[in-house]
Amino acid sequence: TMTGRCTVPRVWQFVSAVLFSGIAVMALAFPDQLYDAVFDGAEVTSKTPIRLYGGALLSISLIMWNALYTAEKVIIRWTLLTEACYFGVQFLVVTATLAETGLMSLGILLLLASRLLFVIISVYYYYQVGRRPKKV
Fold first, then answer.
1. What is the pTM of this model?
2. I need a labelling partner for 79 at 20 to 30 A (CA). Which of 69, 70, 125, 134 fits?
3. pLDDT string in tens for the chain (136-residue length)
4. Cβ distance 73 to 130 under 8 Å?
5. Could you tell me the membrane topology recorded for this protein (predicted)?
């Protein structure tokens, strides 16, 4: 069974599953609006990459939802590590895109800040779940 200490990572897992699912649905159903929200009016040249991104996020969200129902610390840690890697890669890709295009908006800055925060939270819980409980 899980210890009481693991309830906060559970909340984070739930929030992550909701976030991944929501963005996936937006990318699949409304690619133009999702792109516009992040890149502030930049024209979408093709909807296909955004929809592929949505499909990938939907797949990750399925893993997140299923991880909510396990007590296996190894599986919980793997999902947290997957999240940290995803957000880290997204941060790097968006930063590289900014360097190439020089395109800057409040949406992009908020995206970068949130991705960095999500990496920190995921890595923190990754280590918290992995720690051995203190003997009382």
1. 0.79
2. 134
3. 444 455 778 899 999 999 999 999 999 999 888 877 776 666 677 888 889 999 999 999 999 999 998 888 899 999 999 999 999 998 998 899 888 888 777 878 888 999 999 999 999 999 998 887 766 6
4. yes
5. Multi-pass membrane protein
What type of residue is 68?
A: L
Which tokens in the block code for residue 124? 């923190």
HEC readout, the chain: CCCHHHHHHHHHHHHHHHHHHHHHHHHHHCHHHHHHHHHCCCCCCCCHHHHHHHHHHHHHHHHHHHHCCCCCHHHHHHHHHHHHHHHHHHHHHHHHHHHHHCCCCHHHHHHHHHHHHHHHHHHHHHHHHHCCCCCC
